[in-house]
Amino acid sequence: MSKITIGKKEYEVVEELLNQCELLFYEANPRVYSILRANGTTPTQKEIQAKMVSMDHVKQLRLSIEQNGGLIDPLIVVKRNGEYVVLEGNSRLAAYRLLADKDPVKWQKVRANILPEEITENEIFTLLGQYHLVGRKDWSVFEQAAYLYRQKMASGLENDILAKNVGLTEGKVNTYISVYTFMLEHDDLRPDRWSYYEEYLKSRGIRKYRETSPKIDDTFVKQVKSGEIKQAMDVRTVLGEVAKASDKTAKKIMQEIIDGSVDIYDGHEQLKATGKTTNTYKHINKFRETIVSDDFQKALLLEATSNSSIQFELKKIKKAVDDILKKMS
């Protein structure tokens, strides 16, 4: 008998050889959860197995298990309603099933650590979080986010508690939950589009328009689904750059993008043509926005009256600007 730590609590587990054909896949496994959404009903074990054995990483696991003559790490299972459910090791179980198809006698039994039946669903969540969210992280970011979202819905826990339970930062959990929620609300749960939506939601420039122009979300999602936005990086470097600019031209271009009359690439080219996307312009524009700010000027005047160094620097700046303008003219 050995022990397993979940959170800060230790549980005794019993290792046994179990008949692999009698084990059940864990329905909440993110790698098969897409089946759950296929028609809104709970998938059968046969459907889950068909999905799992078709995955490339399971086929690779099959070769590894065969070469090792069995599992190096036992499955982790729990008894529910008289049957053993595989909480950790669903891919290994699927690989075992592939091996058993060729030699059912040799691959009939599989090593498994059996958890006590009184373990709670929250403790199961913490256990899987230890393995896949902060441990080896073999779930994709989308799969991790989907799992966190479902646990939040099932448990009603706040994000800070979820984060503490699995050892993630609250900021990361907030990001995972918000991006997954956005994808769910806009009916786009394709894992390969995760980065598009993550870039979209974290852009400060885009956020300003989302607060005043709700239509931007629908336009953006439509363009992601259609493939009009070519890669996730373009959300930051193309759309985000237009959104960050604060002059009238940029605002006009952004409105045309939101309305769908201009795509993000044409809009970005229009902005570039104004010369307002160069680093030189950005530095000067940021400096101007700072010094014309009412709050900055009030603070500057208060401090400058007793600080000759500030007055000196301002005079040097004025002289430098005058010299540049003179050379330009």
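[next item in queue]
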Amino acid sequence: MSQPWHPDRLAARLPFLHRRNLMLAATRAFFAARGYTEVETPYAVPTPGEEVHLHPYRLEPSGLYLHTSPEFAMKKLLAGGAGKIFQLARVWRHERTSPSHATEFTMLEWYAPGATMDDLIAEVCDYLAAILPPVFTYAGHDISLAAANRLTVAEAFTRFVNADLLATAANAPALAAASGATLRPGETWEDLFFRLLLALVEPNIGHPGPTFLTHWPAAQAALARRDPDDPRVAERFELYIAGLELANAFVELTDAAEQRARFVEDRARRAALGGPSWPLDEDFLEAVGNMPPCAGIALGFDRLVMLATGATSIADVTWLG
């Protein structure tokens, strides 16, 4: 929730905001130099997404929703032949606020036709080098961009949870037994996976350099394609730096039938949890089958500014927050 406006509050955050503007300019210059086109897509949409645990804001009386990501719209542009595109979009998610979470924030999203996961990771490293100091301190961690590292989710669970994650897929009691955790009443495999990830994995990654957490279990593929070499996992990665989850990226699924099946399953799960319903985006599903092979990423720009400035709250890097 926004705090009452006061000139002293704005004065305290102005140095952070000036740095934010420089980073916005540097971001646009970075992508322009690489042949990307900046795009703008609608914020009010009939279908805000299909992720089970993201809760959108509904606009009355139109019945439209504030989007939780520009992903669907940008993929329609890809299917239309837009080529390499990026967007700095305002997005909205109805969730609990915290120093690193806001209900309205800025997302940097970009898509590179023909790119592999390795290509995208390399480009993210180049972008971080263009936008952040090579060495900085955040939340008590000394961070060096040169120390960037990669870790699969399965490797992370072996190292920090002492569990064979892929051997327990979809089996909550097996994952609980392997990890030494007590399974809570009604807790699913997905629930336990995220509980262990948050408690035991995330605190141990993202320092002394950025960590790219790759190859997520197929159940967590979202809109990523399965790895052709190991269908138990998806070509997805998340980026962590100094305790902050900064980005989520996919080698994009371009199989419309598989995407539809995933959406049907997600909608059933959301309904079982008492979540809202909205029309299935048939236009998007048609676009998926016409997309070129590509990789894409959504990055929390406000959190990036926090890293660059040392700000401890997302409100400190927004003009009115």
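[queue empty]
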